[in-house]
Amino acid sequence: MELSNVESALRSLLRRENLPASIIEAAETLMQKPSSDVFVSMIPRFLGTLDPPRWDVLAVGFLIASAHALTLDAHSDTWELVVDRCHANLEHLEPRVRRLVGKALGALSAVRGAGVYDAFREELMDIIECNITRSPEFEEVNEEEYFSYFDTSIPLASPLSTPTSPHRLDDISGFKSLETTLLTFKSLVQGLGPAFLAALEADDFAFFHSIVVRSVKHGNRHVRNVGFETLHVLHKSVLPPRYIMAHPSLGHAIADCLVRGLQDPWSEVRLTASQATRSFLLLCDVHDERPLFYAKLVPRMCLNRHYVADGVKAYSRDTWAKVMGETGRHVVAQFTAECVQCYVDATDADNPFVREAACICIGELVARVQPHVLDLLRAARICLQDDVFTVSDAACAASSQVVLAFPTECRASLPALLKWWTVHLSDDVWSVREDAAVALGSVLRAYPTDEALRKQIVELAATFLGKAKDQPAMSQAAYDALVKSEVAHSTKQRFSCCSFEPRQLKRATDHDLCHDHDPAAGHALWSHTDGAIYLVREMCATKEAQADAIALFPALVDASILRHFPQTSILQETLWKQLPVIGASLGKQVFKRHIELFFDPLALTLQGTHRLAKFAAVECTKQLSQLIGPSIFRGRLDANSMWLAVIAPHLDPQP
User: Fold this and answer.
1) How many domains does the chain divide into?
2) What global pTM score does this model have?
3) Is 573 within a domain?
4) 586-639 tens-digit pLDDT
């Protein structure tokens, strides 16, 4: 049923079955959009006692009361009826009714002030106390009776739970009742606005501690979400400027709540907490109040700029720009120690996307945090072993950035880093293979004069390039059958961004790193070769390793002409995507001496049937032509009729 506004609600109500004639007549009258007084005069029909009771009729009545609260103020009898029906339906079993009761009370409080809040505060607190914790004394609700309530043709005689009743809702419904009661409090606060300040300050901020703090710490995500919505309303509508300076203990309590929300495992809660954080910081004075809370909030705000949920990410980046302006880097530098500790802790989070964001932040921060390099590198190195590929992928990038920025400090950690970068060079995921190659290439740039290290990486590339030849033969049909079989998808770890299940690998120490087996033992041989193609690209980008990379070109060609297993098309696609980059790194004069070496395998791919590999080959042809010059490229093709017949048609036409 559509309950966003009165007109939509009336239209939806008229489509419902078995409506009493008086309700149909009232709804049709109101659909003519009469004066506000007519709307108020119809409220008793909707909120009156029906036999059997109808939740949908009640909902429309409360919605009308909310929309016409100003007019309702002049009709004392109807006002008293609305207040009485609000009391009676605070724990209505239908959550939509409970939400609209809260909305109505918010509208009434905006008209008559704190008296409405005082009249309902104690009753609402009783409901919260009944439902704030999971009680083993909750009585089971009869299933047939419970579900029949949602069928308007078989209405329930009365609600199952009131604060004074021995009956209790089941566990989940209890949390739903708690959520809507908290929403009612939020509506009252929003309706009162600045007038709520006196109630907020009563009994040493008892409302804040008993409602807001308990909500944001609750185990149910919907309850936590409402808690942060209430905080947001307090910042936007109730607290005056410079209030936090006069009440610093309240400010720190709010900041502690926001810290919990900014690292909540549920994206919805994290987004609402981000909204509350923005409104809190914008409320605070930029010079006297905000710096008091930066140590707690800035590290989490930085992390959320890279969180996987697009809404959280975009909102956090916008908040950073609005709150920090041009001072963001200075603020991060000022609170570097707190940021480092937050990032290190985040690399051990159960949520894999938090670990991924932490690795990105480590790479972002590393150029300005030399005293903390070893802590950050250790955290990134341990994340290289993570069992979630997005985390290990980000860890490859982060650790390589650390090495590039601080080669001297990272020297002692190179053996462990090289081991795990080598493992990821043959990972099942192409992006991990590429980032591992980038990391190995960063070592060549960080230590350009280390001949032993360069030879080690060159030997690694040469060894990996040849592994695809030993890949067991398999037909495409056999491969398709394997992919569809249960075996291919068994014994795989499942994970969720919101999962509370323990990780397979918790943070290790330097002595806990894997030494007793080969982590790459299960990687396919062809994936070693695919990773090596990326590594050759990185070698070409390093002047000291360019000659070694050129010496590996025949091995690249050998890999690209393999056809005895289905993934050969992936090798072709990778090579043709990377070859223009390789050529650009070497430069036109050097690369054109070796370009003809690749024409035979390029033509074979263009004659093939795999669409992605063929498309990559076509794009490669066009880019190579532009790199060395269209006329020179076409002249090279003239040397072989097959090259001319297969490759030349894909060149861009010359003017």
Assistant:
1) 1
2) 0.69
3) yes
4) 999 999 999 999 999 999 999 988 899 999 999 999 999 999 999 999 999 998
